[in-house]
């Protein structure tokens, strides 16, 4: 199977779906001539033309709203946010409109739109370019929210997203655009609402999504080689719909869980994971569920501060030790 | 409907009068300092020493010309990310700026918290702005409102690129400022590209200044590579603001001689010949030097002395920034709130 980068897997998905379906159009800042500031859309203007690859003015609310209008009339727009942080300017269109139009029109109007772009941190751009917005967008009924980490899932979930009849918030791990993985050349889809067991284990369950999954895999490797602890790693992949079954099944096996997220501790996805476990697997728990999250500060710029602000391998190992009662 | 040319004629000439010789030389030296510092920061980034550079090359005339025309003690400044030359003219030092690009603890703008290029010094009334473009315009309007209510005699000035004028905040700021006749200048540095997106894909009008009429304020166009014209146009707008006649939209036509930031490769969207032509024929720094030479205000020795002073200042700032301490991760929570939160269970 060929290896593709995260970036090229995204581009492959967009290219295949644009070739297959003429109603797919792309909008965003610098996505045409420039090929996107992260080069996701490189070459697509030449191949599909300016009617389908639209360089927009710097007006996130405007072009997202226009894309919603396009979606109402039969197009399938894929909107690039140069970074998800700029989506705050479009959040009225996303939250107040895209998420509600089907419901408020009594089912008459659907908004098959995908909004995509880099999410989260790790590339030293500080807080206004670093937010992780899973919990924010995941909060609103009417939005589907996904956060793939492998190039395989990126392509398969992007095809699912474009074909979905409802708005999809597609949160890419911006720090991983250059990472490689196996991606089939043929068409395939990865469904929403189905988590992935990224590594099997019996002693403790480590749960995250997006970039932090790679952190968990490194931690699991260390726990296995240094302590003979077999950690199971769950990649949620999809925040809404949310796969409770995979989490609950794993915890029933391991009896211990650590939920990890890049975003802040209060009201985050890890809190939701912990709540689901205590609701559905309370009798199986041998220790309280631990959470590891970002420091309660706007993500700082200086490299040493940024590193201190995000979950570290050591923090996850310490949390695993606590649920395993192996402290000190 | 009037054509944009006709509207431009109605606006009249941008600025008039004379500039004291001493000020002319100060404008020039600050422009040279900004250019050399901008180049140095890009070199440091290319060498892997600082993470990011945000050049101002080509924008020195409008930034320095406008800044030095402002009444210094009465000015509130809302810069943007390309305002390196402007903030030097408003009183920040090369060390202040270099500390920011090194993300050092003593960086006066942000102490390593925010990206470089987000300039801030309370004692100089330079206010930090958002990475998301356009928000500073609304803040400047609000600050001007406060100045008016408090009768402080202050005037606000804010800067933005032409791309940023597509954001809703531009409209909302100008509308608010005009309704309340606020003492504020909106300076648009129109360098014709918003990263890669050319002016024609950003707006269907020829001039950003044409929009001023819709808000009920003067829209002035100035050659943004002519430091003197920029100075004079700003001085006129300040006079209007302080006389209670309200805001001005000042559009400076210019060109970015360097990439958008060190992360940008501008060769993909601008013809190399276009960049070369602007460098060769319209670079504001040698252009102003030629003006000063023609007036007998600058000669070869004077130019060399300025170059030497600038080089020494930048070398000194770089050495001191390099030797200064990084931020301390133990202080990472300071200052999220005015009073630190009662910590919960920490990680």
What do these coordinates show?
The complex is a heterodimer of chains A (328) and B (347). With 328 residues, chain A is α/β, with parallel strands linked by helices. Chain A folds into two domains: 3-182, Rossmann fold; 196-323, Rossmann fold (3-Layer(aba) Sandwich), CATH 3.40.50.920. Chain A is 37% helix and 20% strand. Chain A has twelve helices and 14 strands. Chain A has helices at 6-20, 44-48, 60-72, 91-98, 101-104, 134-138, 151-163, 212-227, 244-254, 269-280, 303-309, 313-323; strands at residues 3-5, 24-28, 53-55, 76-80, 114-119, 144-146, 168-173, 180-182, 196-199, 204-208, 231-235, 238-240, 257-264, 290-294. The model of chain A has no long low-confidence stretch (mean pLDDT 97). Chain B is built from 13 helices and seven strands. Chain B has 347 residues and is of the alpha/beta class. The longest helix of chain B is centred in the N-terminal third of the chain and has 26 residues, at 21-46. Chain B has a five-stranded parallel beta sheet with strand order 1-2-3-7-6, sandwiched between helices. In chain B, strands 4-5 form a two-stranded antiparallel ribbon. Chain B has one domain (5-220, 228-244, 300-322): Rossmann fold, CATH 3.40.50. Chain B has helices at 4-11, 21-46, 60-69, 84-89, 94-101, 135-149, 168-179, 199-202, 212-215, 227-242, 272-282, 284-294, 300-323; strands spanning 75-78, 155-161, 184-190, 193-194, 197-198, 219-223, 248-253. Classes of the chains: A alpha/beta (328), B alpha/beta (347). The interface between A and B is large, with 43 and 40 residues.
Which pair has the most extensive contact? A-B, 43 and 40 residues
Helix content of chain A: 25-40%
Number of domains of chain B: 1
CATH hierarchy class name of the largest domain in chain A = Alpha Beta
């Amino acid at each position: 199977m060929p290896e593709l980068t995260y970036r090229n897997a995204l581009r492959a998905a967009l290219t295949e779906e644009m070739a297959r379906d003429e109603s797919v159009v792309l909008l965003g800042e610098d996505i045409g001539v420039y090929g996107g500031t992260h080069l996701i859309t490189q070459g697509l203007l030449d191949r599909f033309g300016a009617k389908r690859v639209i360089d927009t003015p710097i007006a996130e609310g405007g072009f997202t709203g226009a894309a919603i209008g396009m979606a109402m009339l039969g197009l399938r727009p894929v909107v690039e946010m140069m970074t998800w942080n700029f989506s705050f300017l479009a959040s009225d269109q996303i939250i107040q409109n895209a998420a509600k139009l089907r419901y408020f029109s009594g089912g008459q109007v659907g908004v098959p739109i995908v909004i995509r772009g880099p999410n989260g941190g790790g590339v030293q751009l500080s807080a206004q370019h670093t937010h992780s917005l899973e919990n924010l967008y995941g909060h609103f009924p009417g939005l589907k929210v996904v956060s793939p980490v492998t190039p395989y899932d990126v392509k398969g979930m992007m095809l699912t997203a474009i074909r979905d009849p409802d708005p999809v918030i597609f949160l890419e791990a911006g720090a991983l655009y250059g990472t490689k993985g196996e991606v089939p050349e043929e068409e395939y889809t990865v469904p929403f609402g189905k988590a992935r067991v990224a590594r099997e284990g019996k002693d403790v369950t480590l749960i995250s999504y997006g970039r932090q999954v790679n952190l968990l895999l490194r931690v699991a490797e260390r726990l296995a080689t240094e302590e003979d602890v077999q950690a199971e790693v769950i990649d949620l992949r999809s925040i809404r719909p949310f796969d409770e079954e995979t989490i609950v099944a794993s915890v029933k096996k391991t009896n211990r869980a650590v939920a990890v997220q890049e975003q802040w501790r209060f009201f985050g996805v890890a809190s939701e994971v912990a709540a689901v476990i205590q609701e559905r697997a309370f009798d199986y728990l041998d220790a309280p569920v631990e959470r590891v999250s970002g420091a309660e500060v706007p993500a700082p710029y200086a490299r040493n501060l940024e590193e201190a602000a995000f979950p570290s391998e050591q923090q996850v190992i310490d949390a695993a030790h606590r649920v395993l009662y192996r402290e000190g | 409907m009037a054509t944009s040319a006709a509207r431009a004629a109605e606006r009249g000439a941008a600025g008039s009068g004379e500039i004291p010789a001493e000020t002319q030389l100060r404008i020039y030296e600050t422009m040279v300092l900004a250019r050399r510092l901008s180049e140095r920061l890009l070199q440091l980034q290319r060498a892997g020493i600082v993470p990011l550079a945000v050049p101002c090359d080509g924008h020195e005339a409008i930034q320095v010309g406008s800044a030095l025309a402002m009444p210094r003690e009465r000015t509130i400044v809302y810069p943007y990310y390309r305002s390196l030359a402007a903030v030097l003219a408003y009183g920040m030092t090369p060390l202040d700026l270099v500390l920011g690009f090194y993300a050092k603890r003593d960086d006066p703008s942000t102490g390593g918290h925010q990206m470089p290029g987000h300039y801030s010094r309370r004692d100089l009334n330079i206010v930090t702005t958002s990475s998301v473009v356009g928000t500073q315009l609304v803040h400047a309007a609000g600050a001007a409102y406060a100045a008016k209510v408090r009768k402080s005699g202050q005037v606000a000035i804010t800067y933005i690129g032409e791309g940023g004028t597509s954001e809703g905040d531009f409209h909302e700021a100008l509308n608010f400022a005009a309704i309340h006749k606020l003492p504020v200048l909106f300076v648009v540095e129109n360098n014709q590209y918003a990263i890669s997106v050319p002016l024609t894909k950003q707006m269907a009008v020829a001039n950003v200044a044409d929009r001023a009429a819709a808000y009920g304020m003067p829209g002035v166009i100035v050659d943004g590579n002519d430091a003197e014209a920029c100075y004079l146009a700003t001085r006129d707008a300040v006079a209007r603001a302080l006389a209670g006649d309200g805001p001005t939209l000042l559009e400076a036509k210019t060109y970015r001689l360097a990439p958008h930031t060190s992360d940008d490769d501008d060769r993909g969207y601008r013809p190399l010949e276009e960049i070369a032509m602007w460098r060769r024929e319209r670079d504001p720094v040698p252009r102003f030097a030629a003006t000063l030479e023609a007036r007998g205000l600058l000669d070869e020795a004077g130019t060399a002395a300025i170059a030497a002073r600038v080089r020494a200042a930048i070398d000194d700032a770089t050495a001191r920034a390099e030797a200064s301490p990084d931020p301390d991760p133990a202080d990472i929570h300071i200052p999220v709130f005015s009073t630190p939160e009662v910590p919960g269970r920490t990680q």
